[in-house]
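User: Predict the full complex structure for these chains.
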Amino acid sequence: MKILIADDDPQLLRALRITLSAKGYDVVTALDGRGAIAAAIEQRPDVLLLDLGMPGIDGIQVIHAIRGWSDAPILVVSGRTGAGDKVEALDAGADDYVTKPFLVDELLARIRALTRRIPEHGVNPVVSFGTVTVDLSARTVIDTSGSTSQQVRLTPTEWQVLELLIRNAGRLVTRQTLLTHIWGTEHARDTGYLRLYLSQLRKKLEPDPASPRYLLTESGMGYRLQLDAEERAR
Amino acid sequence: MKILIADDDPQLLRALRITLSAKGYDVVTALDGRGAIAAAIEQRPDVLLLDLGMPGIDGIQVIHAIRGWSDAPILVVSGRTGAGDKVEALDAGADDYVTKPFLVDELLARIRALTRRIPEHGVNPVVSFGTVTVDLSARTVIDTSGSTSQQVRLTPTEWQVLELLIRNAGRLVTRQTLLTHIWGTEHARDTGYLRLYLSQLRKKLEPDPASPRYLLTESGMGYRLQLDAEERAR
DNA sequence: CCTTCCCGTATGGAATCCGTAAGGATGACA
DNA sequence: TGTCATCCTTACGGATTCCATACGGGAAGG
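Assistant: Here is the predicted structure of the four-chain assembly.
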């Protein structure tokens, strides 16, 4: 989630950058109105924190300029407490208005409230290979090999293995990585668990489990999920 | 544009009704939390103005109850000025928070800002699976298994569980998600509540509770509401 | 051809997780 | 004060999943 903060106070900017970064936001900053508009165009933030009263362009005009092409939520942070300023900013297209000084907890809660309504356009976590489609977020596997698409059930451990392979699709995943990720650091000694779960995964996912085309073994090293060409192109 | 105002102060209620009616809003009022929930269900307002600290139910719980099935913007108007109250209300699902006393012009501007983002038509809150039809907004379950359609009664906790499953229909819902969503804080330690309520829900909703077709268990992970194919197509 | 290593698969028991029933505690309401 | 619905706790049989072991096959190298 990318957030643009525009304020002419470098100190406040720095404090907000630290706070919001710690909360997992991708922070972009600007020091004046012109810079805010430019940054909004270049960076396409998901949320905007705008200070009115920045030097140069009037804050209201900044809102207008951005609202012309973006629907991202705009939260105005301003020292002006008058009702007239608030009404003007909100009617110009701002979604919320907080007066300085403000409490950080409240600001964060208001940002959460604004971003809640924005559909998350994050990376699509659905991957297909062979006759099978995997949706990591919904935790579903659908097999379209027969005439009717069928749900495939995986056990928790099978999911853990498959998820790690999908997140590193195309790349080699070492046995060590898989073992430590699933059984913890102390269980790095393979006694054959992995072969077992890979076998079960192939039985459930591969068109021909005897000769795997997607869940490949790299002898002596680990495993690799090989996607089809059109999948890799994404 | 229909707006629901819930406040225990009749005088404030009257003043707001006059003001908002003059602006062209269709005004509905309620004097306590229970009345607010009932009015929201019956009248389907486009916006809600909620006072915290009404007698009876806690304001936060009112927000939760309405957010279960409605996406209408909620603006909290409260005398409590603490950051904790604001954060709690906003995270519960409120979209804005104004402290009393407030300026009418600002309130109107905030209402305009909220209503500007209302989508044309919300998500259909009625879902069918098996022999039952669930209407989240009306809080009704109708069973059409027999010759005559029958009303099914669910307890509040059963509703909360079913609600979360319906809103994530087709997707896996973690035990942890269910527990934290229903029992609030870090009450994530399962001693068996969920199994109990799922059992009761199946008894009331499944055609054959012994072999569930819709309220599925994913052993070791959580639960999933599996809809029929034609329902999923929507 | 044989040895060695690594991998895939089958199988059974152990541990964990799940469904359901029964009973007590709590609170709303008359 | 008593009734009723709901919530919570406990307990136990059954199902699922995990773990450990064993055995067979294939590739590499001598």
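The two ends of chain A are 21 Å apart (CA to CA).
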